[in-house]
Amino acid sequence: MTRFDVAVIGAGPGGYVAAIRAAQLGMKLAIVEREHLGGICLNWGCIPTKALLRTAELYTAMRRGAEFGLAADNVRFDLARVVERSRKVAERLANGVAYLMRKNKVTVIDGTARLTGGGRIAVTGNAGEALPDIEASHIIVATGARARTLPGLEPDGSLIWTYQKAMIPASFPKSLLIVGSGAIGIEFASFYRSLGADVTVVEMLPRILPAEDAEISELARKSFARQGIAIHTETRVERLIKGADAVTATLRLRDGSAEEITADRVILAIGITGNVEGLGLEPQGVRVDKGHIVVDEWGRTGAAGIYAIGDVVGPPWLAHKASHEGIICVEKIAGVDGVHPLDRTAIPGCTYSSPQVASVGLTEEAAREAGHELKIGRFPYSANGKAIALGETEGLVKTVFDAESGALLGAHLIGAEATEQIQGFVIAKTLETTEAELIAAIFPHPTLSEMMGESVLDAYGRALHI
Predict the structure, then answer these.
(1) Which residue of 73, 214, 342, 455 has the lowest C-beta tally within 10 Å?
(2) Can 445 be counted among the known catalytic residues?
(3) Are 341 and 420 in contact (CB under 8 A)?
């Protein structure tokens, strides 16, 4: 048996970052991973999907060449090479994580872990062989999550896909039904529609991107509809019937009527559930609720010396949230001064569709429900010089302030590079910035970021360019 100060189960963006930070603090580390360093995010999620969406973005830009005085005839794509590039991007970054583990002297164990009590972990190798047990003073569970399924809507990897299969199609579907309109569903809708597929999105809730501000959600819906994406909200998929090379779905619409739709392929994007099975959690006193591990603000479970971070502890299921939870958990273990629990209102959310959607903090509705008197600012992309020069005039920057204190409560963007701009508001919110400080900030010209400043000005009746 080998003893460590900290053992991490799972090498995704929560687990490997926690391991690096613990190593920086002088601890002896082991990390157990049964599949890929970097986890789902790096290998089958965040990174490879962005590579695919970059292809779609360039393809769309090339087809718009005439607007910019360019001639590009017979623009087409090679699906095999599109997928190959995406996989190579993921592979490169996975190799980068392996380097970071070596650099920080983290012992990497390929296998499946199970808690056996007393700080011990039994490890089964990927070939089924028993590996030496390990022992650690502190054990961090960072096993992530997987796509959720529903009875009668199970994926088969052929006609009915999860996000993993949707990233490596052997052939391009002419038509696609996507069940679920969160970030994952909408990103795939955007990718496949940009490359020419007929796409239908079905959502049980009243609007798409339900976690976003309602105004931004409605703008997104209108934009996607203009692109030709069919959207059914307040609609449930009752059953899927597989044919030889297509799937027929029965939809229950908001008025109670039924409708059938046939598509070449179906993508299920109806949420995720934590990877909690087979870990031996409950016998150790770790509570699991609705598929996720229950923890306190420091990542501590109900069992001494056992912690959990990332997707396995619940929403928001975001890589950057997992990484920060890992850092906070490790620094609390090490007794670092000044450690603060994660501020969930400062966690940004990004959807890399076309147009992009990004946000941080409270939506307008949530802020009102919390009892705030509000000042709301809006600035359209169509009034920004850089957006006009880029040919990207569709979009909006919206800011939400507390009317009494001037505190920034939330920011919500839709449009080109919204996922890059949002970090300015994340920093502002983390620093507890008020409207006065944002108004005093100088935004470079000409940039899309000027819209951020103008939105703040608009909230206080001082907008200059609308």
Answers:
(1) 73
(2) yes
(3) no
